[in-house]
Design a protein that fits this description.
Length: about 260
C-alpha cells in the first residue's frame, strides 16, 4: 500500500513539475517585447560626450546611458548596450541588433512613419559658439563666409555649409573648441548641452554660446524603436512618464548639462 502511494505521489510530482515547466515556457514565449526576454538592448554611439561616452576608466556613461538605465529599471528589465557608428545605427533597428536607439534621435514626421518614437526626453538647443564678445556672430545668417569648425556629417555641419560658411572639418566638439580658442576658426554650430558640458570642464575658456534654436528649428529627442513593436513603445512611454514625474529626467539633465533641457 505504501509502495502504491509513493508511486502515485511521484507521478503527481512529475505532472505538477511538467505543468509549471509548460507554464513558465508559455510565459517566456509570450514576452516578445524585446529581442531577449527581460533585457532592454539599446543602440548608441558611445563617442559623444555628454550623451554617451567612455570615462577615464573606460566605463560607458553619459546622459543617454543613464536614461536607458532608468527606463530599464522602471520596466523591470536589465539593460544591454550595443555601440555602433552613426551611419549604421538606425539600420540596426531593422536588423534587430537592438530594441531601441537612444542617441540624439530627433522626433520627425518622417521617422514616425518608418519607426516608433517615444515621448520626448530632451529638447535640444542649437548653439552658435563664438569667442566672448564677438558681435559679428549674433545669429545664424552671420556665419556666411565665416570659418566654422564642424563635423561635416552632422546636422550642424550640413546647416553651416548651407548657410555659406567655410568649413574646417573636426571629429567633435573638443576639436572644434581647440580651433576656436586658438583663433583657427571663427565659431561652431553645435548642441547647447554639449557646449555647456564642455564649458563646465573649461570654465576659463574665452568662448560663449548664442541660442539659435529658433533659426535652426530644433526638434525634441526620443527613443527610436522598430515600427512593429507597439508593445515596447507603450512600455517605454510609461517608463518615460514615470522618470519625468519622479524628477529623474531633470536631475540627469542638470548633472550633465548644468541646466534642465527636458522641458519644451
Amino acid at each position: 500500500m505504501n509502495k502504491k502511494i509513493a508511486i502515485i505521489l511521484a507521478g503527481l510530482i512529475v505532472i505538477i513539475g511538467a505543468i509549471f515547466g509548460i507554464s513558465k515556457m508559455a510565459s517566456s514565449q509570450k514576452d516578445d517585447t524585446t529581442i531577449k526576454a527581460g533585457t532592454f538592448t539599446v543602440g548608441l554611439e558611445g563617442t559623444y560626450a555628454p550623451f554617451s561616452y567612455h570615462d577615464d576608466k573606460g566605463n560607458l556613461t553619459g546622459f543617454e546611458v543613464e536614461i536607458a538605465e532608468a527606463l530599464a529599471k522602471k520596466m523591470d528589465m536589465k539593460v544591454n548596450f550595443v555601440q555602433s557608428k552613426w551611419d549604421s545605427l538606425i539600420a540596426g533597428i531593422n536588423a534587430k541588433r537592438y530594441d531601441a536607439v537612444i542617441n540624439n534621435i530627433g522626433i520627425t514626421d518622417d521617422r514616425k512613419k518608418n519607426y516608433r518614437m517615444s515621448t520626448p526626453y530632451l529638447y535640444p538647443k542649437a548653439a552658435l559658439i563664438r569667442r566672448t564678445g564677438d558681435t559679428s556672430l549674433n545669429k545664424l545668417s552671420d556665419i556666411k563666409g565665416k570659418t566654422m569648425a564642424q563635423s561635416v556629417t552632422s546636422n550642424y555641419g550640413k546647416r553651416a555649409q548651407a548657410e555659406g560658411a567655410n568649413i574646417k572639418a573636426v571629429a567633435g566638439i573638443i576639436e572644434a573648441m581647440n580651433l576656436l580658442t586658438t583663433n583657427r576658426a571663427d565659431g561652431s554650430l553645435n548642441d547647447m548641452g554639449a557646449f555647456e558640458n564642455w564649458k563646465q570642464s573649461n570654465p576659463d575658456a574665452d568662448v560663449e554660446a548664442v541660442d539659435v534654436s529658433k533659426d535652426m528649428g530644433s526638434t525634441p529627442d526620443g527613443v527610436l524603436m522598430n515600427k512593429d513593436n507597439k508593445k515596447l513603445q507603450e512600455k517605454v512611454n510609461k517608463a518615460m512618464k514615470e522618470i519625468r514625474e519622479d524628477g529623474t529626467l531633470t536631475k540627469l539633465s542638470k548633472k550633465y548639462f548644468n541646466k534642465d533641457l527636458t522641458k519644451e
